[in-house]
Amino acid sequence: MKLTDTAHMYNVQQKILVAVDCIIFGFDTQNLKLLLFKRKVDPFKGDWSLIGAFVKGNLSINDAAKQILFETTGLKDIYLDELKTYSDYNRDPGDRVISIAHYSLISINDFDIEKVEEFDAKWFNLDEIPDLVLDHNQMVKDAVNRLRKKVKHQPIGFNLLPEYFTLPKLQRLYESIYQRELDSRNFRKKILSQNILIKTDKKDKSESKKGAFLYCFDKDKFDILKTKGYNFDI
Amino acid sequence: MKLTDTAHMYNVQQKILVAVDCIIFGFDTQNLKLLLFKRKVDPFKGDWSLIGAFVKGNLSINDAAKQILFETTGLKDIYLDELKTYSDYNRDPGDRVISIAHYSLISINDFDIEKVEEFDAKWFNLDEIPDLVLDHNQMVKDAVNRLRKKVKHQPIGFNLLPEYFTLPKLQRLYESIYQRELDSRNFRKKILSQNILIKTDKKDKSESKKGAFLYCFDKDKFDILKTKGYNFDI
DNA sequence: CGGATATACGTAATATTTACGTTATTTTGT
DNA sequence: ACAAAATAACGTAAATATTACGTATATCCG
User: Fold this and answer.
1) E strands of chain A, at which residues?
2) Smaller CB count within 10 Å for chain B: N or C?
3) Architecture of the A17-153 domain
4) Which bases in strand C are touched by protein, i.e. have an atom under 7 Å from a CB?
């Protein structure tokens, strides 16, 4: 029977298990990290895994992803973006399951440590990701690539930092995502020329004797600029 | 019950109808077009719609999309890319259905007219898209936005043209996607500077008395350049 | 053969990116 | 008290890319 045959539509269609898996990125002031979990169900119970769940009830996929993030990190209003669908027929030996992977960016500071421990979770550096269940390593790879492309043209990197941050920290964030060093003088020039940061008169002295001024992202300004055709680029 | 509860995993999970919908782009030498179909099932039977089908059997989502495209256009090896998932609980009054939208780029020339007619399909200009069923208008909007961003940095526009094409045609293609006019002298300079086009000694005289040289995309060259860190940009 | 039309090639001004030099602030050690 | 050390902050020139145009060429048609 062809997919486009119309004889029995809706009545006898095949229903499928739908899951959501979340690639959770964090930044610990030096390196980009990934939050991984010990899988709680068979098959592969106890192995490292992305956090995920089956979609049920009347939640949209996106809402299901949000709920998973809240349940495992205690955070709401997290940056969340759909990555792609993983649907190879045999990707999960437990059953035919398609998974719609999402990635999210969180500020490690805001983070609910207790929740994380309750869920047997651990932060991993990107170059130390262990073998993960199913096709989760591929998901991570795809998510990192997506993040690399996206942070350049969308001001989403700020979600990985606390509300107030220094320019050297912002630079270090981009370096850890791009995996290459940037020239601090040019970085500073480029980011400041976009006029989407608000400079405060406070300094963070945790990284140097001189201290670096704290800035915050000016979302309102960015939204206005965006309507005028401005494109973020760093 | 929480999504992440593990008491009954796999056994009593909720299965969901999964569909694929395809946004099919074409280019008729002047304008970007969309292939739309008359819906063949209730609800909304007879209304304009994207082509789609439920996912069944052991096909991956991507393979299901490919098969739909083959059945409706007679074309194989079409450029196809996942757009995003549409999953509002009430998006389809027929049942709870999530749809994973894909967009594809085809060369109208290669096209099997009989197939299209068999499926009650019609090409529409982008500014003349009728009301579509369900959330299909939103899918189209999202697909157009995605295409606009993607053609700038990936050499995918060539999929909308015949194998051999003139530079003015390529420019017209980009103009119809970006919806703004480009300077032909700068366009030519920029595309040729990337060394991914092969110039032939043949001319197409259908658009002018002088005729314009035919070029084709050098995929092998592009793949080599890509490994060297080159990024397409137009 | 001259005008019309679209194609093809060229150049100067402007803007952006890159590479690197210099100054400033503060702590620490002598 | 002051020099050394470390990071942050500011600046400038060269190289590269983009933009805005001017001009030449091939062909058809009247």
Assistant:
1) 15-27, 32-38, 48-49, 51-54, 79-86, 97-105, 121-125, 165-166, 197-204, 212-217
2) N
3) Alpha-Beta Complex (3.90)
4) 4-11, 17-21, 24-28
